[in-house]
Amino acid sequence: MRIVLLGPPGAGKGTQAKLMHERIGAPHISTGDLLRAAVAGHSELGVAAQGYMQRGELVPDPVVIGMIDERLQQNGANPSFMLDGFPRTVTQAEALQAFLDGRHIPLDHVVSLQVPRDELIRRLSGRRTCGQCGAMYHISSEPSRVPGVCDRCGGALLQRDDDREETIRARLEVYDRSTAPLAAFYDARGLLREIDGTGSAPQVLERIMARIDGRA
Ligand code: AMP
Protein backbone atom coordinates (compact mmCIF):
# COMPACT_ATOMS: atom_id res chain seq x y z
CA MET A 1 0.00 0.00 0.00
CA ARG A 2 1.27 3.47 -0.90
CA ILE A 3 -0.31 6.36 0.94
CA VAL A 4 0.41 10.07 1.20
CA LEU A 5 -0.82 11.82 4.35
CA LEU A 6 -1.69 15.42 3.62
CA GLY A 7 -2.72 18.13 6.04
CA PRO A 8 -1.49 21.21 7.85
CA PRO A 9 0.96 21.03 10.77
CA GLY A 10 -0.92 19.68 13.78
CA ALA A 11 -3.52 17.78 11.74
CA GLY A 12 -2.28 14.48 13.17
CA LYS A 13 -0.35 13.08 10.20
CA GLY A 14 2.45 11.62 12.36
CA THR A 15 0.04 10.16 14.91
CA GLN A 16 -2.11 8.54 12.24
CA ALA A 17 0.89 7.25 10.29
CA LYS A 18 2.13 5.46 13.43
CA LEU A 19 -1.31 3.92 14.08
CA MET A 20 -1.75 2.94 10.42
CA HIS A 21 1.69 1.36 10.42
CA GLU A 22 0.50 -0.92 13.25
CA ARG A 23 -2.60 -1.85 11.19
CA ILE A 24 -1.24 -2.24 7.69
CA GLY A 25 2.50 -2.55 8.15
CA ALA A 26 3.62 -0.09 5.47
CA PRO A 27 6.69 1.86 6.64
CA HIS A 28 6.08 5.35 8.02
CA ILE A 29 8.40 7.83 6.35
CA SER A 30 8.37 11.35 7.81
CA THR A 31 10.48 14.00 6.10
CA GLY A 32 10.27 16.14 9.27
CA ASP A 33 11.74 13.25 11.34
CA LEU A 34 14.46 12.58 8.73
CA LEU A 35 15.39 16.28 8.68
CA ARG A 36 15.40 16.59 12.49
CA ALA A 37 17.70 13.53 12.68
CA ALA A 38 19.99 15.15 10.09
CA VAL A 39 20.07 18.38 12.13
CA ALA A 40 20.82 16.48 15.35
CA GLY A 41 23.61 14.55 13.59
CA HIS A 42 25.12 17.76 12.14
CA SER A 43 25.26 16.17 8.69
CA GLU A 44 25.66 18.30 5.55
CA LEU A 45 21.93 17.87 4.93
CA GLY A 46 21.15 18.93 8.51
CA VAL A 47 23.29 22.05 8.25
CA ALA A 48 21.53 22.97 4.99
CA ALA A 49 18.05 22.42 6.49
CA GLN A 50 18.35 23.86 10.00
CA GLY A 51 17.75 27.56 9.31
CA TYR A 52 14.65 26.92 7.19
CA MET A 53 13.17 24.64 9.83
CA GLN A 54 13.77 27.11 12.66
CA ARG A 55 11.97 29.82 10.69
CA GLY A 56 9.07 27.49 9.83
CA GLU A 57 9.91 27.71 6.11
CA LEU A 58 10.16 24.83 3.67
CA VAL A 59 13.55 23.28 3.07
CA PRO A 60 14.30 23.77 -0.67
CA ASP A 61 12.74 21.19 -3.01
CA PRO A 62 16.01 19.73 -4.42
CA VAL A 63 17.29 18.98 -0.89
CA VAL A 64 14.08 17.25 0.23
CA ILE A 65 13.52 15.44 -3.07
CA GLY A 66 17.09 14.05 -2.99
CA MET A 67 16.60 12.89 0.59
CA ILE A 68 13.26 11.14 -0.02
CA ASP A 69 14.48 9.55 -3.25
CA GLU A 70 17.35 7.97 -1.35
CA ARG A 71 15.02 6.83 1.44
CA LEU A 72 12.45 5.28 -0.91
CA GLN A 73 15.16 3.41 -2.80
CA GLN A 74 16.07 1.64 0.45
CA ASN A 75 12.61 0.00 0.36
CA GLY A 76 13.34 -2.04 -2.76
CA ALA A 77 11.87 -2.06 -6.26
CA ASN A 78 8.24 -2.15 -5.14
CA PRO A 79 8.17 0.02 -2.03
CA SER A 80 5.13 0.39 0.19
CA PHE A 81 5.01 3.50 2.37
CA MET A 82 3.04 6.05 4.30
CA LEU A 83 4.52 9.42 3.52
CA ASP A 84 4.08 11.98 6.28
CA GLY A 85 5.06 15.56 5.40
CA PHE A 86 5.98 14.81 1.79
CA PRO A 87 5.09 16.08 -0.76
CA ARG A 88 4.61 19.67 0.43
CA THR A 89 4.84 21.47 -2.93
CA VAL A 90 3.58 20.72 -6.43
CA THR A 91 7.23 20.28 -7.52
CA GLN A 92 7.68 17.60 -4.84
CA ALA A 93 4.42 15.90 -5.90
CA GLU A 94 5.64 15.81 -9.50
CA ALA A 95 8.97 14.32 -8.37
CA LEU A 96 7.12 11.61 -6.42
CA GLN A 97 4.96 10.90 -9.47
CA ALA A 98 8.09 10.57 -11.65
CA PHE A 99 9.64 8.19 -9.09
CA LEU A 100 6.51 5.98 -9.12
CA ASP A 101 5.99 6.16 -12.88
CA GLY A 102 9.63 5.12 -13.40
CA ARG A 103 8.89 1.95 -11.44
CA HIS A 104 5.38 1.41 -12.86
CA ILE A 105 3.83 1.49 -9.40
CA PRO A 106 0.73 3.49 -8.45
CA LEU A 107 -0.07 5.65 -5.45
CA ASP A 108 -3.17 4.20 -3.73
CA HIS A 109 -4.58 6.99 -1.54
CA VAL A 110 -3.92 10.58 -0.51
CA VAL A 111 -5.47 11.01 2.94
CA SER A 112 -6.12 14.69 3.63
CA LEU A 113 -6.81 15.42 7.32
CA GLN A 114 -9.19 18.34 7.92
CA VAL A 115 -8.86 20.21 11.23
CA PRO A 116 -10.02 23.79 12.02
CA ARG A 117 -7.28 26.39 12.39
CA ASP A 118 -7.83 27.23 16.09
CA GLU A 119 -7.63 23.52 16.94
CA LEU A 120 -4.34 23.22 14.99
CA ILE A 121 -2.83 26.09 17.00
CA ARG A 122 -4.07 24.57 20.27
CA ARG A 123 -2.59 21.17 19.37
CA LEU A 124 0.78 22.49 18.21
CA SER A 125 1.40 24.95 21.02
CA GLY A 126 0.67 22.26 23.67
CA ARG A 127 2.56 19.45 21.93
CA ARG A 128 5.45 17.84 23.80
CA THR A 129 7.62 15.01 22.51
CA CYS A 130 9.87 12.63 24.41
CA GLY A 131 13.47 13.38 23.46
CA GLN A 132 14.34 9.73 24.02
CA CYS A 133 11.57 7.53 22.54
CA GLY A 134 9.54 10.03 20.47
CA ALA A 135 6.23 9.48 22.37
CA MET A 136 3.88 12.44 21.95
CA TYR A 137 1.85 14.26 24.60
CA HIS A 138 -0.30 17.36 24.91
CA ILE A 139 -0.02 19.50 28.03
CA SER A 140 -3.80 19.67 28.57
CA SER A 141 -5.54 16.97 26.51
CA GLU A 142 -2.95 14.18 26.82
CA PRO A 143 -0.58 15.06 29.67
CA SER A 144 2.11 12.74 31.02
CA ARG A 145 1.59 11.47 34.59
CA VAL A 146 4.58 13.48 35.86
CA PRO A 147 4.87 16.86 34.08
CA GLY A 148 7.86 16.95 31.71
CA VAL A 149 8.63 13.23 32.05
CA CYS A 150 7.73 10.50 29.55
CA ASP A 151 5.37 7.81 30.93
CA ARG A 152 6.93 5.16 28.73
CA CYS A 153 10.67 5.59 29.17
CA GLY A 154 11.25 8.38 31.73
CA GLY A 155 12.87 10.62 29.10
CA ALA A 156 12.51 14.42 29.21
CA LEU A 157 9.56 15.91 27.30
CA LEU A 158 10.57 18.69 24.94
CA GLN A 159 8.79 21.33 22.92
CA ARG A 160 9.91 21.43 19.30
CA ASP A 161 11.57 24.76 18.46
CA ASP A 162 9.11 25.24 15.61
CA ASP A 163 6.07 24.62 17.86
CA ARG A 164 6.34 28.13 19.36
CA GLU A 165 3.54 30.57 18.59
CA GLU A 166 5.31 32.81 15.98
CA THR A 167 6.74 29.83 14.09
CA ILE A 168 3.41 28.01 14.15
CA ARG A 169 1.79 30.95 12.33
CA ALA A 170 4.61 30.99 9.75
CA ARG A 171 4.21 27.23 9.16
CA LEU A 172 0.45 27.55 8.68
CA GLU A 173 0.96 30.37 6.16
CA VAL A 174 3.49 28.26 4.27
CA TYR A 175 0.97 25.43 4.27
CA ASP A 176 -1.77 27.63 2.77
CA ARG A 177 0.54 28.98 0.11
CA SER A 178 2.58 25.94 -0.94
CA THR A 179 0.93 22.74 0.27
CA ALA A 180 -2.85 23.35 0.16
CA PRO A 181 -2.77 23.39 -3.70
CA LEU A 182 -1.80 19.71 -3.58
CA ALA A 183 -5.40 18.80 -2.73
CA ALA A 184 -6.44 19.87 -6.24
CA PHE A 185 -3.41 18.09 -7.74
CA TYR A 186 -4.46 14.77 -6.21
CA ASP A 187 -8.20 15.31 -6.59
CA ALA A 188 -7.65 15.64 -10.34
CA ARG A 189 -6.00 12.20 -10.23
CA GLY A 190 -8.88 10.63 -8.27
CA LEU A 191 -6.70 9.93 -5.22
CA LEU A 192 -7.89 12.48 -2.65
CA ARG A 193 -9.67 11.13 0.47
CA GLU A 194 -10.73 14.01 2.73
CA ILE A 195 -11.10 12.88 6.34
CA ASP A 196 -12.41 14.73 9.40
CA GLY A 197 -9.30 14.93 11.61
CA THR A 198 -11.08 16.11 14.78
CA GLY A 199 -11.79 13.86 17.78
CA SER A 200 -9.58 11.21 19.31
CA ALA A 201 -6.73 9.54 17.41
CA PRO A 202 -8.52 6.12 17.36
CA GLN A 203 -11.70 7.77 15.99
CA VAL A 204 -9.74 9.42 13.18
CA LEU A 205 -7.95 6.14 12.45
CA GLU A 206 -11.29 4.34 12.04
CA ARG A 207 -12.51 7.03 9.61
CA ILE A 208 -9.34 6.62 7.55
CA MET A 209 -9.47 2.82 7.53
CA ALA A 210 -13.15 2.81 6.56
CA ARG A 211 -12.36 5.04 3.60
CA ILE A 212 -9.31 3.05 2.53
CA ASP A 213 -11.19 -0.25 2.83
CA GLY A 214 -14.02 1.21 0.73
CA ARG A 215 -16.53 1.05 3.64
CA ALA A 216 -17.17 4.83 3.65
P1 AMP B 1 7.07 18.40 10.11
O1 AMP B 1 7.68 17.58 11.18
O2 AMP B 1 6.49 17.58 9.00
O3 AMP B 1 6.11 19.44 10.62
O4 AMP B 1 8.28 19.22 9.43
C1 AMP B 1 9.07 20.12 10.19
C2 AMP B 1 9.81 21.05 9.25
O5 AMP B 1 10.68 20.30 8.39
C3 AMP B 1 8.95 21.85 8.30
O6 AMP B 1 8.41 23.03 8.91
C4 AMP B 1 9.95 22.18 7.19
O7 AMP B 1 10.85 23.19 7.59
C5 AMP B 1 10.74 20.88 7.10
N1 AMP B 1 10.12 19.92 6.15
C6 AMP B 1 9.54 18.72 6.43
N2 AMP B 1 9.08 18.13 5.31
C7 AMP B 1 9.37 18.98 4.30
C8 AMP B 1 9.14 18.95 2.90
N3 AMP B 1 8.49 17.92 2.32
N4 AMP B 1 9.57 20.00 2.15
C9 AMP B 1 10.22 21.04 2.72
N5 AMP B 1 10.45 21.14 4.03
C10 AMP B 1 10.05 20.11 4.83
Keywords:
15% strand; alpha/beta; binds adenosine monophosphate; 3-stranded antiparallel beta sheet; single chain; 5-stranded parallel beta sheet
Description:
This protein is α/β, with parallel strands linked by helices and about 220 residues long. It has a single domain (about 1-115, about 165-210), classed as Rossmann fold (3-Layer(aba) Sandwich), CATH 3.40.50. The protein is built from nine helices and eight strands. The chain has helices at about 15-25, 30-40, 45-55, 60-75, 90-105, 115-125, 165-180, 180-185, 200-210, and strands at about 1-5, 30, 80-85, 110-115, 125-130, 135-140, 155-160, 190-195. The strands form two sheets. Strands 2-3-1-4-8 form a five-stranded parallel sheet. Strand 5 (about 125-130) and strand 6 form a beta hairpin. Helix 1 (about 15-25) packs across helix 9 (about 200-210), helix 2 packs across helix 3 (about 45-55) and helix 4 (about 60-75) runs parallel beside helix 5 (about 90-105). The longest helix is centred in the last third of the chain and has 15 residues, at about 165-180. It starts with a strand and ends with a helix. The model has no long low-confidence stretch (mean pLDDT about 95). Bound molecules: adenosine monophosphate. Adenosine monophosphate binds near residues 31, 59, 162 and 171.
